[in-house]
Protein 1
Amino acid sequence: MRWTLWVPLMLFAFFVGVAGYQLFQPKDEFIPSTMIGQALPEFELPAASETRPGVTTADFKDGKSKLLNIWASWCLPCIAEAPHLESLKEEGVEIIGVAIRDKREDVDEFLATHGNPYSRIGADEISAVQLEIGSSGVPETFVIDGEGNIIHQHIGDVRARDVQRLLEILEDAS
Amino acid sequence: MSAELGLAALWMSAALAILQLAGGAIAQRNPDAPLAALVRPAAILQGFLAVFSFAMLLWVFAITDLSVKLVATNSHSMKPMIFKLSGAWGNHEGSMLLWVTVMALAGALIAWLERRLPEKTMQATLASQGFVAIGFYAFLLLSSNPFERLATPAVEGSGLNPLLQDIGLAFHPPTLYMGYVGLSVAFSFAVGALLTRQVNPEFARVMRPWVLGAWVFLTLGITAGSYWAYYELGWGGWWFWDPVENASLMPWLAATALLHSASVLAARDALRVWTIMLGVVAFSMSMLGTFLVRSGILTSVHAFAVDPERGSFILALLCLYIGGALLLFALRAGSVSEGQRFALVSREGALVFNNVMLSAILGIVLLGTLYPILTEAFDVRVSVGPPYFNPVGAIFTIPMLAVMAVGPMLRWREDNIDRIKLPIAIVTVLVVTAALAIVLFTSDIGVLPLLGLAFAVGLGVASFMPLRGRNLLRVPLATWGMVISHFGIAVALLGMASESAFTDEKLVAVAPGEATQLSGFTITLESVDPIAGPNWTAMEAQITAQRGDGAPVVLNPQSRHFWAPVQQTTESALLTRWDGQLYAVVGAPSPDGRWQLRLWWKPLVTLIWYGGLLIALGGTLSIIGRLSSDIRRRQRLAREADERADMAALRVENGAAPAGGAA
């Protein structure tokens, strides 16, 4: 028996091993922000709505961990995540919103219809802050610790199953 | 009702595949068993039923039966008929049904027509064909049923991806699948030969026309796919090293190597183990491609429905079939003797060298395609593209082209280079002159395009050299086939190299009435108007292209908007001249009323696809030549046997033969 005849089978077995392993890995289509673990950049955003004040970096440095939610009134998944943000707020979490490329009247209408879990809402009209913190879409939610450092990035809408995990990360961050 | 009939036929085909496997397996132990006689009929009936099932799928698509889930999700009542039909295979389930239909049809054809091999080997072959088919029937019936009904019929279908609503889709997948899955015959022949240890020249002669047939379809399918991508995607490129393109190229490379090694086996009884190995590898590459495309393990422009469950199912099939065949190969191939020896400088020597080169290129493409999966296991994301495939592939392609030019002039078994030193000198001078001329008359040309152009010229001339000094009317058809296929490679290579070396590209924003210049063409945007098609609306540009003082020609590129499903596509407009193509795409309007135009002049680009057609034509001629000479040989043998029998009978009658003599 010649050992060379077994080479194709071995190569194939190696392929099956790698492919099988890969097949059962969760497919992560998102590229996480490289800003995680770093301090928030300096910014100052005007209020996006009559009902809440604007946002500055200093607002994140009061020693309490909180959520930074990037959203927009024109974004459909933001409607889907609204009730879950509401339940996070009920758990005592402070949520600061940044409305992306939005109009004041649209923001007000959205908040009136879908609820307002935010303590502050800044208006980011040219996505400047959004890009600086490494977010490429709406909605995205960041966990910021009490010193204004970015701890965690959640890409996409917050769903029911994410609420508990976000609470745990917030707990760890404070 | 049609959907249920189709599904029933599919179940029955699957049952017949089991019968085919069982019969073939029993026949290995007991050739006279009653089941053994059923193997061929089972294979033929299975082919009929699979075709019937596919016809039923076409029918539900033709009448847009929206109670069938596949129709509702992939078709639309407003689509033109041709795209309703092609929609049947423009999705995962339908294309899998096409896959098993071709596989069953191939099995039916060998069961019906192939009578040259020992019956035991044929039964083992058909058993293997049935065995592989069973897995794909199971996949189709258990996880991808194309005939699934909706509880409540849909009001309207959601339409077919507009990119697929093109005449290219009507032809590219069926031809590609004929080739892709047709290679299952080579796989089954190889397995059958391993099981019965019948690896000999007769086996190669039997397998060769079937492999050639699949290879011709594969060549046409790849050529059509490349042209389709070129004009439909609007990027001006003709090959992207996309995983799915690679998935069709790899079986082609393996099949090309297989054809040539089968020739050595048929003519000289050498390369037995290697030929068997390639027979297994060629179809394994087809199955591997199916896995890569449908499991979602790689990201590709050909996104089929991605589903890890389907992925695991196909991976299990791969383990069973490829793993099983390779295990059988490892266990049995040791007992197959290597066959005849030959000298390094000989026809066989050249064929072996190029077989190794083809296999190396196959290995490179395979590695490049699978590398992202491997690195992702270590959390490194890479994308492998032309910067890897082009130069690394060229390392092996260039020596292969050189040997391809010389090899067909060598004699079998042993030859002397001195005998053909004149033609070699002519070809070498041609290549060097061409390279020098190109360097002198062009500026800034890459090394690979330069080598491509020079070798294309050399190979183009060299491919006709095997005909020198021969009466052209008496040259066998198979030799003509080889000459034309090799010439086709040279033609395609010239197109590829010329396209990459000399393409002129321009992106401009022009207002209606304005003109721009590109490679000797004056291109004027006359107007942009809205027009309506059967299931789309478009902004159509009216462009005139005038070359020098020639007559202006009108081009109409469009930016199309489909409403089911909603999608924007660009329809390029092509102006074909003997020396190249002008390629125009209209883009978005700017606020000041100007329109974006993207223009390319691609010299000799059409040669890429003409080359592909020539390669396929050569293959077709070879099939006809091989089959007719085989029929003649058999008739001669039969006639000689008859004559001998007559002579013997005569002698017996005359009482001249001693008892127990010539009879």
Protein 2
Amino acid sequence: MTWQRILEFYLERPGLAVLIVGNIIFVLGTLLLVFAALALRTGNDRKGARWRRLETRWETKTLEVVTETAPPEAAWALVDPKDRLRYVTFLLRFARRLTGTERKRVDELAAPYLDQLLPQLKARQPERRARAIQTLATLGQRRYHAQIERSLSDPSPLVSMVAARSLARRESPDFAVSILGHLHRFGHWRPSFLASMLASVGPAVAPALRKALGDPSFDPKVRGVAADALRELNDYAAGDVAAEVLNTTTDRDLLAGTLGLLAHVGRAEHLPAVRAHLESAEPIVRARVASVLGRIGGPADIAKLTAAFDDPSPWVALRAAEALHERRDPVLRVLAESAHPRAALARQMLKGGGA
Amino acid sequence: MTIGLLDAFNVVVLAYFVILNIGYFLTGLFAFRSLRRYVRRLQTLDIEDLLGSAGMPPITLIAPAFNEEPTCVEATRSLLTLRYGDFEVLFVNDGSKDGTMTRMIEAFALEPTYRLPTGDIPTKGALRGVYRSRSHPKLWVIDKDNGGKADTLNAGLNYCRTPLFCGMDADSLLEREALTRIVRPFVEDARTIAAGGIIRIVNGCTVGEGTVTNVQLPSELVPRLQVLEYLRAFLAGRMGWHELEATLIISGAFGVFRRDIVVEVGGYATDTVGEDMELVVRLHRYCREKKIPYSIGFVPDPVAWTECPVTLTVLGRQRDRWQRGLIETLWRHRVMLFNPRYGRVGMVAYPYFVFLEMLAPLVEVFGYVTFVIALILGRVSEVYAAAFLTLAIGLGIGLSITAVALEEMGFRRYPKRKDLYRLIGLAVIENFGYRQLTTYWRLRGMVNLFRKKHSWGTMERRGFGPPKPPA
């Protein structure tokens, strides 16, 4: 029996059997990978070609609808039922290039198909849910806001953030309150990014932000984000709240954020609260104080800024030099022409080198 | 007795070989999982939205340059056209002996100025001057005496004023949106202290106005083989380590770091030729010891294009240096090895790099030698030998093909079908000579380290123009 002899041969040499089986497995595995690479290339090339064909077909008619030379039905007639979500993706990219009434027409074109995306809000992969939220928010006008707002509580921070950014773009203060309420979920995100997102809602969000900034029950990080957002909005009404925060908090980041806000919206009456932090142990706080004094400080603050020019931290010195330059005070020229170790910094400022 | 030792050594080599390849395959599997998720995640990214956001952190690009005359102007121009809100470029000339400074002064209308240092990391090379461009206000040039790459990066760090900095090579070409993409982990996770991008080889590609306009494989074999190697290292290797949250290497050619923490740990180490890896390992160690929550990762889509060696001599010097850098780093931080205090880095990544990367050339070379001796002495049958060698080659091919498949799954940067076939062919060819050569160079690196040879080696640049015909 041939098979029996082969089996006996390998049973006597188990090491060899393992090597040969290993070889077979790896040859098959490698061939499978080669096949996968080629299949991926073929599949993607085909998909790409089909996508280009569809786009060419849709683009002309969609443009006609957008420019009101054809009714929406003309574009819908070109969309096969199986390509509906592809058409939505196409419209999504198209929409980003348009504004005003033309943009509205794109939303109208997408409207009949958007409900098909709703099941994706329950998809297992967070990326799919996030993509669906993004599409519904971009093309769905206000129709899907309830679903998007609910997604702020999605277990995935990615979905939650996509929802928050979508709502922020709606420029409605109501949504801003919702976003603020969920801001603690974005603890890992960069505060300046969150502030920028909130500020993009527009001035209507300012009252909610002021409330958050002044409310000690909020996390200091959230309050810091609120301060940054108010600074981006140049909200002058926030000055008093900010000064009050300076008197009550010891959190470094919140102090820095609030001083950054006062550098933009502060007034003379806020100076005492600002000066109280001139001797802070934190260089970032001292640097921010110098910036505020440069913007709103009085003649009495020149001596303080000159002293800050000698601060051991180069950051504080830099901000002090900027502040003195901003105040157009002759002391900077004196420093520039002196033998001061940082005279070159003063010369740079005078030359317009900036920071 | 000798025969017994020989047999035992062969068994050890075989076991080592099996473990090594299991390690490679596991990282490949993790890479697959991570890349699949990342590609899906990219679909939720609106790059324009990110570019328009005022919340993106400012970055300083620190480009250390030594004798970069052929590429410095084009590479700097490319940096200045990056699509990113708030960034500045610090080009640091490390006492170049060619016309690097003259070309920079002429091309960018540089004028001497002053810039306040914000850090005080000690540097060897004395400062010669600071310049600012009249035509491009974002560009500053620091001219200093020669002190080596790490010293030059430290000099740049001392003048960095932004919360993040990007360490790179002055001859690298960053893709326009590379910064926006690489900064995402810093925006999405405030614990992020460092992130590395992917390095791709520019040889053979067409470059126009500081960007790669046509991607294709190089025409010469040596650079072509390196394309495959880079794909394997980044897509199958680093992506896998990223998934395991144990990234130990961020390439010196393109990585973004939080300035404050790098200054806190003392900047780049100037007494090693592997300063990029050493910094990352030191950051891991520092954060773990100080119990600072942190994250270090790899992002596969921001690309830095770089010129690779085209001759075996230069390539050999590069690999020799990489191996020395690896050993120096691993030896310096040996306390982390199998130390649970350092989490997965100490328990998984560090042992992997020590036993399966650092020692690999040694074991491989001695393995080849003893295998041949055993074969001559009749201790191994020809059938065994053939089966073993086929398996070794098969595994090597499998690993490279995995990288090619990952590239197809994720990015498809080589659009020509011909290039895909070539990459698959290279996965086979590289096992016959090239892999053995790299093993030899790495072993030479080990030997040179013990002989205390610390040379960096020179890289011959051709520039980004069209390929020059051979002389």
